[in-house]
Structures are given as structure tokens and as C-alpha cells.
Write a structure and sequence with these properties.
This protein is an alpha+beta fold. It has 10 helices and 19 strands. Helix 2 (86-102) packs across helix 3 (109-121). The longest helix is centred in the N-terminal third of the chain and has 21 residues, at 133-153. The chain is elongated, with a radius of gyration of 37 Å. It binds zinc ion (5 copies). Residues 6-123 form the RWD domain.
């Protein structure tokens, strides 16, 4: 029978970097899973994922004086973030004593380690683990990182150039796992995107997607375009990927018979009516509204909202309306620097909130407002020219309201209003109401 010292000494030879003292040893054990393990989050078991790699476990052996003749070894298992559930850890720790009995009180450290590795390899006998949701995130990230490291350290043959390449030079496709060298992928996809043949931007394996299909399905194999995110990972240059997105969208719109095009001659953008989901109510009034919603389209490029009937009106009429709308927009709206939208106020006060970029401004103040969280402070702050300017046009004292011609510039309006405001305050002060 081996002595305690001999047994601990042998651990040093077999396992990497064990920390061995007179009566104890601890070291990290890698787990080789024979098949993927499902990980469930507690308390939400719907949140589950499967992993193929588990982090290292630390195993502690403590040997009492009378080990192994009269006492079993004491075993403790530790895991980063306690990913190994306590009930499994307890069961394994208890197994050491049972084994010691079974082996007739002899040295069992090695037998225990192989028992442990065998159990761990099958997912600790369960094939699944229940952990906290933060731990689930940790395990999934560990699995992803380990798989990535393994891939990079390996060597692979590119099926396009037929050259053996290192993992660093290769890319494994996200959906199917087919492996190609980055150089071949970049060359092929760049050429396809430049020439506008975006249907070729898919996995380059000729059998991809057909391995699991029956012969009947073969003819109906669908093109699975590579996502822009994946193209950036390969990596393709950003401007190339941007072109891919634009061309792909345009092709889809061209093919889609339901696409309505913006009637403005200078725009010709797409106006997708599906942006407005149908209401679910079925009462008569709502049906009427539903019908009218079906006719409303908004151009995705210039935001022009138009009724479907407008498309049927004649060319000259459309052109005249186009010009009129452009003229009106230029004369009566201001341009938001942030989103380039034309805005004008719709209700009586001077506050304007852009429905696109949600910035606040005041029609009396040409500049963008400084504090977007508290816009009204703009006209509530004393000793500023804008104090009480929110309703300036509504006050009866603005005798000349309505005399602005369409040609008056914004700047003139602001100056005029400031002048009015100064007069108003002077009058109020004269009446003894200090503001
Ligand atoms: Zn290649
Ligand atoms: Zn593939
Ligand atoms: Zn348009
Ligand atoms: Zn209409
Ligand atoms: Zn805006």
C-alpha cells in the first residue's frame, strides 16, 4: 500500500501544477464533455442553452493522519462563480468515502479522480445543470471563448484554395460551420458586392444547406444571405458592407410587388405601407379607419406622407402639387440640424418638439436649445431675452399680430418679438408689477 507521501508525490507527476503540502493537495481538473450539456437558469427554466465546454474545477484533497487505513480522504470541490451546483458537489464529495469503503480502506485518490472525470464527462450523470442566470451567461461565454481558442489553435483546409491554413487565417461560418480561409472569403464577397451580385453572398460550400434536406426539397433550396454583422466579422471593410446593405434592400424592394414608390419626382424613395400595422378592433368606425390607413404611405427617404389615390392623379397635377409643397415647406418650416427634418409649430405656443429626433426648440429662438431634459426653462429663466416668450403671440398686447407677411424672415420675427416683449415688460413695471 502506498504511503500518503508517495500518493501525493505521484499527483505532482501526473497533473499540471498541483499544490502539494504534507497532508493535502489541490489542483485544477479539466472536464472533457462527451456530449453537449444543457444549462438551465434558475428560477426561469425557459432560459436554457447547451454548451460543449465547462470551466476547470478545483479539487482539494485533505488526508488525515490515519488515511488510508482508518480514515477516508476528505474531498472538496470548488468552481468559479459556483457554476457546479451544490448538490452535485456534495454527491461527488460523499462518493470519496463510499469508494474508500468499497476499496477496502486503501489509497483511492487516483481511482476517485478517474471516477470524477468519467461522471463529469457525461454532464455529472444528469446531462443538464441548473444555475443562476448570471452563471448561465458566464458558462455560455466560457464555452464560446474556448471553442474560439480551439478553432484558432487548430489547422484547417480551405475548400476553395485547397491550402492548409492556421485557425488564425480561417473563418467558420456562423450558421453551418463550414470553414474557409479569410483571404478567399474576402476576395469572393468583395467581388460579388462590387458587381451587385448579392445573391452570391452566401456560404461558399456547394452542399451548404442541402445536407439535411430530402431529395424533394433539393430544388427549393433557399439562398441564405450572410448577415452584415457576419461580413464585418470575416472581416470585410465597412464601406463594402454598407454597399451590400443598400443593394440588398433595393433588390428586395424591387422584387416586392407591394412596394409603393414616393411620387415626388426628385425623391423616388420607397414608401412601405406595412410600417403601419392594422388595428385589431373590428367595429364599423375602426373598419373605416383601417381602410384609410391602408391607403396611407410614408416615403422612407423624404418622409412625404401621401394617400394611395395620389398615385393615380395625372403627372402635371402631381408636379404642381410637388412644387407647391416644396415652396410651402421652405417658407413655413425650419430645418432641424440634428435630423434634417423640416418642422413647424402646430399649436399656439412657441415650443416645437421634432417628431423625428425629439429635440426641443422654440420658434422664437433659432438656435438649438441647450438643455433637452428641461426645455421650458428656456422661457422661464428670468433676466434672459426669452423670459415669458412661450405665449408671446397669444397676448392681447401683441397688437400687430397677424401682420407678418409670408416674406418676413425668421430673424425679423425674433427681433420683432423681443421688441414686443421689452415693451410689455416696461408697461408691467410701470404698473408696479415687477417681473
Ligand atoms: Zn482559401
Ligand atoms: Zn455552409
Ligand atoms: Zn420621397
Ligand atoms: Zn385619397
Ligand atoms: Zn428632428
Amino acid at each position: 500500500m502506498a504511503t500518503q507521501a508517495e500518493e501525493l508525490e505521484t499527483l505532482k507527476v501526473i497533473f499540471p501544477e498541483p499544490v502539494v503540502s504534507e497532508r493535502s493537495a489541490h489542483f485544477e481538473l479539466a472536464i472533457e464533455l462527451t456530449k453537449p450539456v444543457d444549462i438551465f437558469a434558475v428560477p426561469d427554466p425557459n432560459d436554457s442553452l447547451s454548451v460543449s465546454h465547462l470551466p476547470l474545477l478545483t479539487i482539494h484533497f485533505t488526508l488525515l493522519e490515519l488515511y488510508s487505513s482508518n480514515e477516508p480522504p476528505s474531498v472538496t470541490l470548488r468552481s468559479t462563480r459556483d457554476w457546479l451546483p451544490w448538490y452535485i458537489a456534495h454527491e461527488l464529495e460523499a462518493a470519496a468515502s463510499m469508494m474508500w469503503e468499497e476499496y477496502g480502506h486503501s489509497s483511492i485518490l487516483f481511482a476517485f479522480i478517474s471516477h470524477f472525470q468519467e461522471t463529469a464527462g457525461t454532464g455529472f450523470g444528469f446531462g443538464w445543470l441548473a444555475v443562476s442566470s448570471s452563471c448561465l451567461t458566464y458558462l455560455v461565454e466560457y464555452d464560446r471563448q474556448t471553442a474560439c481558442d480551439k478553432f484558432k489553435k487548430g489547422s484547417h483546409e480551405c475548400t476553395i484554395c485547397l491550402m492548409p491554413k492556421t485557425g488564425q487565417e480561417c473563418y467558420s461560418m456562423e450558421h453551418c460551420g463550414h470553414i474557409f480561409c479569410m483571404e478567399c472569403l474576402q476576395e469572393y464577397y468583395n467581388a460579388a458586392i462590387q458587381s451587385g451580385e448579392i445573391d452570391n453572398v452566401q456560404c461558399l460550400s456547394p452542399n451548404c444547406g442541402t445536407e439535411t434536406l430530402t431529395t424533394h426539397d433539393h430544388r427549393e433550396k433557399k439562398v441564405r444571405h450572410i448577415s452584415p454583422g457576419e461580413l464585418l466579422q470575416i472581416p470585410l471593410e465597412r464601406h463594402v458592407v454598407q454597399r451590400y446593405v443598400v443593394v440588398k434592400r433595393k433588390k428586395s424592394l424591387d422584387v416586392d410587388k407591394s412596394t409603393i414608390w414616393c411620387p415626388r419626382q426628385w425623391c423616388q424613395g420607397a414608401a412601405n405601407g406595412n410600417k403601419y400595422p392594422k388595428p385589431t378592433e373590428t367595429s364599423q368606425e375602426q373598419e373605416i379607419r383601417l381602410k384609410s390607413w391602408n391607403r396611407l404611405f410614408i416615403c422612407e427617404d423624404c418622409n412625404f406622407a401621401f394617400c394611395n389615390c395620389y398615385l393615380d392623379s395625372n403627372r402635371a397635377q402631381k408636379q404642381a402639387e410637388d412644387e407647391a409643397s416644396l415652396k410651402y415647406t421652405t417658407a413655413h418650416t425650419s430645418l432641424r440640424p440634428k435630423c434634417q427634418a423640416h418642422v413647424s409649430k402646430i399649436s399656439a405656443c412657441n415650443h416645437i418638439r421634432c417628431t423625428q429626433c425629439h429635440t426641443h426648440t422654440f420658434s422664437t429662438c433659432a438656435q438649438r436649445f441647450w438643455k433637452q431634459a428641461t426645455p421650458y426653462r428656456h422661457c422661464n429663466t428670468k433676466r434672459t431675452p426669452y423670459y415669458h416668450s412661450l405665449w408671446v403671440l397669444e397676448q392681447g398686447e401683441d397688437e400687430n399680430e397677424g401682420t407678418f407677411g409670408d416674406e418676413v424672415s425668421r430673424q425679423e420675427i425674433v427681433v420683432y418679438r423681443l421688441d414686443q416683449e421689452r415693451k410689455r415688460r416696461a408697461r408691467m413695471e410701470a404698473r408696479g408689477r415687477v417681473v
